[in-house]
Amino acid sequence: MDLKKVQPPLERQLALLGFELVHLETAREGKDEVLRLYIDHLDAETSQRQITLDDCTTAHEGLLLWLDVEFPDLREKLGVEVSSPGLERPLIKGDHFRRFAGRLCRIQTAAPINGQKRFKGWIGPVAEGGVTLEEDGVLKAVPLEAIQKARLAPFDEEKTPRPKHLTARFTPVPEIEGVETSAFEEEEA
What we know:
Elements: H1 3-16, E1 19-29, E2 32-41, H2 53-70, H3 74-77, E3 79-83, H4 94-99, E4 104-113, E5 116-127, E6 130-135, E7 138-143, E8 147-152, E9 168-172, E10 182-186
Parallel strand pairs: 2-3
Antiparallel strand pairs: 1-2, 4-5, 4-8, 5-6, 6-7, 9-10
């Protein structure tokens, strides 16, 4: 299945339901193949709220009939699963990095950048072509097009030294039972 063909219409349909398509993948589960959609809230007010099981059910039910019309063969070949992006959510677009500026993330690039393919750093400014990370006190620019995989790293935030070059003030991250994390935002000059 060509995910690039399916993704834009799925994004539009989910937007009508009030959700953003964060990531789309196919996965094999036993003998079955599954089309897995990771969603988040679309608007700024609700985007601070975690995706719930009810949200996933709403999105799933809102997609099924539409999929049967737009992609009639899809559900014969694949199961459809809707999920939260989770705490270690994927970062795919520049907007995702902007939204989570000040948070710790892990990035893997397709090809080495200055001899390095894996980065773990605090998300700094995001330009159209890339993201700035502070890793071990060093600012590094990573082009968005070079990123193969990127995820938040909330479980490492407490044990990772705070950035030295990104001026920051700490702000709380929404509390999740059993997880203690904090984040920071760049101070405006």
